[in-house]
From TrEMBL, chains A, B, C, D, E, F:
UniProt keyword annotations, A-Z: Hydrolase
Alphabetical list of Pfam families matching this protein: AXE1
GO molecular function: carboxylic ester hydrolase activity
Stated name of the protein: Alpha/beta fold hydrolase
Domain Acetyl xylan esterase as annotated: residue spans: 1-323
Organism of provenance: Auraticoccus cholistanensis
Binding site for substrate: 91
Length: 327, 327, 327, 327, 327, 327
């Protein structure tokens, strides 16, 4: 198949050249400070029929105080404080039904799987999480990518990244959890939120044990727009196709959410994955974020895969990587 | 090309068999009563460079008081009270730029071209009209079709149809306009809003001189879902694909907005158009609404056209039809 | 979306009219008798890193003695004889990696997930299961559907169905398993094999506690060829497109493998699922098999889904159904 | 694959219900009379490098006297008067290069392969045959289907069918040919011209020994327009999509060229072929023409083929059929 | 979306390197001289129902004396000699119906909208303009692009460009028009004809006030063939695919019609537009022509648009640009 | 159309940089030695109805002794020992029916057209040739490309190339054939086998008079995987998509079958053809093999063609080239 991006040797050298906004730290420090209200975590036990795992319906107060939904899975009969894996989801997805299991609780760990506000349509499930912010009312191209894209203050992912940092705080605050052993993970948009959460965690006083983003989205926006032929990036171009002349304004907004910049701020070890035929999250943009990660890092490369990435192969690799860190 | 719907002789006989909700009139009477606040019309003159036409930027208070945008075009040097054509737009469109002209002002009439809240992305233009209602925050499949579809009270088109009835009131209230010569028109979603506005106008005390819906959308939802292969109807199925088990709830909501039922309440003459190869607004669903119209009516049939319908041919036909009614 | 098959009320009445081969029972009795060699089960423990589940690599002797691979998952620290769920896989899939978990072991049950010989390409994993039979050498259209389709004796699914019956025998023979509580399940091709295994189980002396086929394949071949627009059925037409004139010969072969006929022979309760927009396994063909099931039965209907069917929703429903039968 | 037309049992009963034009015979009698100028056949020997076959470049005067090109192939060293097969070509094709061999000369017969005026673009070759008629200048949708479709007098196929009848006369007039053993054949458009030539031959005093149309085009236009999803029929709809309101005028023109009507006039035996998955020349329209053939007839049915039809299988069948008639 | 051409900074530097034919000026001088017959303009008033605009059906003698159709729109009640905008149309289009209005007459100017011979099929309308030239009879790939492409003398656009120069002469000759204020415009093929008309106008003694080509076609043929993936350029490749070996002959013909060369000869100011995602008229080929324009020039760049270009945004920009020149 | 590979001037310079396996000669010498069993040629006369040609059904012992089928066509009434053309077929094809004629026997030569084991599905015909080797049983992605790709010893094309060398030996051994005038030809996969047969012929003691590969497949595998967007190369990527991590193993296998390396070993003159828009067998990979050919060579370039290449044009060119060598 025709290559979709640079050959591997050039990917390894590729760097994003867009400078970060001068006030990037200030923007996020302010955002998190403005959203420093109590977490208001509510847990309620759910019967899934799966006797090896104990499951709770979780609600906490996200950006602007909006209620965010999650599932908490714990190994049945657990004892002591457990390591925890916090997981975010791909664009359109969400926590789904409580029976949907990732392998983490089967490894003996807690697992917090968190909704993305305003999404969930591809899975359905129970009680979706709305995006009740006033900024969500703006006229935009359908989907999340251009919701409030007029300014960094109103952009959709300002709310989502803040929700994510608060989800880490929720995880660390649980009585069943060891706050020194918090991992964060997710694929595609979930990978983007993973990097963002890892990059912003230090500002929120959260110390992560590791981050495992897979085929992450929302990296190196300018290049992503020039390469991605599928997935949500083209929503931005669809918006700019109608609203001619707003290109620079939009790119300025997006730059506050570019995970190339947020990766630079992460302090925990990381295991990335990248797929060289990925037309949704082009490999150069994943490498661009990976290149900026300053703590211990490794990357799994899937040469002949598209956006599905490593799937079970990567899950197995993550399990090994996590076991080495979480015991 | 394979036919997309019934053959013409059967289209003429086709009737929608879904009964209307028992409380349909109550629902709409209540909705309009709850939104009976002042119109708060603001006009401001715009320079388009087109010397034959005078153009105004219009804002009025729609559903819930939200500001709705429109352009008002008047023939330059007009005298006396003019007939007016109120136009609504297709899904994703809007009033666009003030230079975009329909033929109505060139015929010597006023023309009020009205935004659809939350849309406009395919055209861009000036100051889009947001949809600031709390119900718009719900998690839904991207696009307008499933926004608030959980109940008739929260559904997107409750707000849009109400905005439309108020746009008729705005048009009739203008000092340059003869309130006895108000026509309403639009294609696709604009055709749907045309029928809805005509059907609800009597409840709002608006007497229309005519309605000209082209290839109208939002008619006979059950059948539309079973036939339409393109356009916005499939958004509903995409929502139900994820949110399994909500089919009847959603169809119940949609039934309050079905133009088969609202057509039954219209009291003015009408000129419909239908395209027999239309995969977006299937011809049987257009005929289903047309069949219920009880006032004087005619329909232009485009046998070999898809959703583009009659285009300039229909415009010419509408001009003739309107001239016969408006002078 | 345009309907892909009959409307629901007609689906409920639809029956396959192709008579079964006169010697169908003889064919299968002979086939199973010819393959009544020892099961030669070999188990070897695998470390998956998942502490709640114990996993074994399983090999047993299938049709013609060929080695068939499976994973056996058991809840860690299990005691006594467990219920077991035997799972077969969709076309192109297989048991995959040992970390890939279905919910069954989390419910406290044994889970045997079995390869389909000659497949597995869409997942990869560990040690694929070849199809070393001489009949597999025939020139055929790529894929499994026409492998050996010249006669019932040489057809691919003769080997696969036999492997499946033997997998049930393997499950029932395990020391950790209660042979009176064996369930069988699978989706698509896995659903086809589920029905076939349930229909043939009585001939092999296996008494099943239940069968849960999802969106099953290989039912009502004549109609499937006339409706399915995606998936493997069109491989048969591709074969017949080149090898003109072999239609009746091929349909005669397929009739020995039609699950409409094998469903008629099943003796255990069943929970089917069907998706009304399924273009791979058309809903009428699923109903055709369901109609012939003579034991206790129910069917989950997904009105707005394609071949993905109910996914997590169906998994939750299956868990409840299985709990009611297996405790 | 979803069936594209009626099931086989209904195809056998299907009849076209469009009545033929009252003046159909008059139209064609006049057309042929107006084009009764000398054939002006010119042959010139060509070296193809194929020693078993002798090849001539042929030019003759077609409709309006325009020069039409053909190749004449004869078995090398032939003796006496040979049977001849006259072949017409599919839409876009033509006689191509002189090295392109059909099996006819290898069977010991003469073979005259004739250009279609204005076509040939898909093959290239030597000296294309233009369509210099004044009627060809009309503005029409690209391709041949709507060239001059405004009236029967100006329509493209008036010229082509006349050229074809004259090609039969050319063949019968050759000194190497036995005028009592003339066969005509062709596939798709070539099949259409075959039927037309056979139907018009009696008016031109040509007695044919047989006609072998494969998957013929230009039959039962109304139905073809409603079924065909590929190939040239949709050109007609593309024309009517732009030129709204001309539907009946165009269908009236086409009716003079419908091979359902011309088949009724054929007097020689025939071997048809039809493909049941043909989306270009729908099988019901082929059966509609076949049903009207009043002389001895048979039809080869390719159940799992599209417009490619029987290819080499049909060639073999034709050879046998022709041998039985031509010796 | 993947970029379709060079990045913007390289577009600005890009130059076409194909040298122009030595006899280019001679070719066009001869062509125009051979077609210097009287214009034979006939105007007849049409009732459009649009009271602000007066419309005339125009016929004039084009290349070879063939009658070319146009509409002339004038502001009702106009006085004195008006500026005029002459508009040409995109491939397949034409003047359409007389009710189809561009904004020019609304700005108080005359507007002459001119048919392209042999086209018009995508719009329909009234009385299409045929292409009765003998060269149009040649066998070519369907569509206009290869009609007569065998030589510059016979090529389709020789006739079209000549018609266009004569349309400028018609406009300048009208009694209602000020011959010193003639603008020419058009999009896509209309943009190509705009450049050609501007480049050839000096040879015909026409002095233009400005040219406004949008996303122009027929520039830098060699590169266009290597980049364009949609629209009419691929017709040329389809022709060469069949008629193997004619590549250089065809490129030689096209070079006489390349607007890179004709742009070099234009003497009036210009406003271009270009769309950076245009797959029909690749942006580098537009810049190639723009780079050669030697008079005052500016270009509107639409970064996120395809061949639709700026639409209403560009119309607004053109109005401003034209007002500054025409008053 | 966007170019699919390098421009022509760079194609001429392109070289494959993958080194050949150190033991390439040993691998093939051993393979051929292991398959040096008697040819066991069986001929039986077939009646095709074509009187100018005499046809035989041929069976010979291929790799591992498996029976390989072919047709032998001879000019009727031939005398003395004839030149012979041995032809191999494209992927999915085969010898087909005995009536299918290439031009070779019409030029007075013998023609041996040989099946590819395990293929033939796109043509049907008589008695397909199976691939009964044990290595064919492996689980692989459907189609031939990954059958046994785990090692050079088990790979599908080891068997096919050996069959081909033996087919040359069969041809040379026929009593009707002059063993000094053996040509080999084929297109696509048939072109690949042509090069392989020519490269391996010296090891088998066969002296060829020439080789005519058209748009050959299986050249420069690494680059082919990066360019080809259609045809069988993507089967390899589909296999590696599931079986992650096997890339280098597979590329190592393929390197033993790369015709860049085998072309280097050919000793006879050659006429290649290449198509510059070929997305199945990218032109650079054809040039890569051509560049390594060390005997007399020429190449026909089809600039505007895809994988269909030169068709009848190339056939005519081959006839001329062959006549110059075979008389």
């Amino acid at each position: 198949m025709p290559r979709v991006d640079l050959p591997l040797d050039q990917l390894l050298e590729y760097r994003c050249t867009t400078p970060e906004p001068d006030d990037l730290d200030e923007f996020w420090t302010t955002t998190l400070a403005e959203n420093d209200h109590p977490l208001d975590v509510v847990l309620s036990r759910v019967d899934t029929g799966l006797t090896l795992v104990e499951t709770y319906d979780v609600t906490f107060a996200g950006y602007g105080g909006a209620p965010i939904k999650a599932w908490l899975h714990l190994p049945a009969g657990h004892q002591g404080r457990l390591p925890v894996v916090v997981q975010f989801h791909g664009y359109s997805g969400g926590r789904g039904l409580p029976q949907q299991m990732a392998p983490w609780p089967l490894a003996g760990w807690a697992h917090l799987t968190v909704d993305t506000r305003g999404q969930g349509w591809s899975q359905g499930g129970v009680d979706p999480t709305p995006d009740p912010d006033a900024a969500a009312a703006s006229s935009h191209y359908p989907g999340s990518m251009t919701s409030g894209v007029e300014s960094p203050q109103t952009y959709f992912y300002r709310r989502v990244y803040t929700d994510a940092v608060r989800a880490l705080q929720v995880a660390a605050s649980l009585e069943q959890v060891d706050p020194d052993r918090v991992l964060v993970t997710g694929g595609s948009q979930g990978g983007a939120i993973t990097i963002a959460a890892a990059g912003l965690a230090p500002k929120a006083g959260v110390r992560l044990a590791g981050a495992m983003p897979d085929v992450p989205f929302l990296c190196d926006f300018r290049r992503s727009l020039e390469i991605a032929s599928a997935g949500p990036y083209p929503e931005i171009e669809a918006y700019l196709k109608g609203w001619r002349g707003r290109g620079e304004q939009v790119l300025n907004t997006l730059n506050y959410f570019d995970n190339v910049h947020l990766a630079r701020r992460a302090e925990c070890p990381t295991l990335f994955s990248v797929a060289l035929l990925d037309t949704v999250c082009p490999p150069s943009t994943v490498y661009a974020a990976y290149a900026e990660w300053r703590a211990e890092k490794e990357i799994a490369v899937y040469e002949y895969n598209g956006h599905e990435g490593g799937q079970a192969y990567q899950q197995a690799r993550q399990l090994g990587w996590a076991r080495a860190r979480l015991g």
